Amino acid sequence: MTQRGRSRRLARRSAVEALYAWQAGGADAAELPRVLAEVLGREDRRQQDEAFVREAVLGVAEHRAELDEAIGQAARGRSLRSIGAMELAILRLGAWELRYRLEIPYRVVISEALRLAGKFTEPAAKRFINGVLDALARRWRALEVEGGARKLAPRRAS
After folding, report:
1. Which of 4-8, 72-76, 146-150 has the highest mean pLDDT?
2. Helices and strands (DSSP H and E) totals, the chain
């Protein structure tokens, strides 16, 4: 993995931790600067992409209503209240990346979300997160998803 990849991976972890802390504290916008400062100030995160952490956390906060509505629709019958706090933090970050960071391939977004889910949640939650983010990728990035599916499909013999 490249240095940039490691930096971004650490940044995603920090963003999820910040989002988790923010929602646990009542999701008050006034708390975001404190939560961000706390996560960005950690000694073990010196190599992270700090700009990405800030952009992700502030982006999720700004678009939370839209992201939550989309997550709720993709969750097929599960209310947001029934989704664990860490699962929801991972879903919000993944949904934000799928919607607003189009330069990041959807497969990378989902893969990194599943890596975080493997670290912070139960196996069933990981499957749920995969299903929700896959549905959102198909909704928001249909051409990219379809193009990837075509590349993977076996070719027919002529």
Report:
1. 72-76
2. 8, 0
* pLDDT 10s digits, 68-103: 999 999 998 899 999 999 999 999 999 999 999 999
Half-sphere CA count of 38, side-chain side, radius 13 A: 14
Q: Is the dihedral of CA 104, 96, 2, 126 positive or negative?
A: negative
Answer whether residue 158 is part of any domain. no
- Say how far apart CA 6 and CA 11 lie, in whole Å: 8
Q: Which two tokens stand for residue 40?
A: 């960005």
CATH of the domain at 9: 1.10.940.10
pLDDT at 148 over 90: no
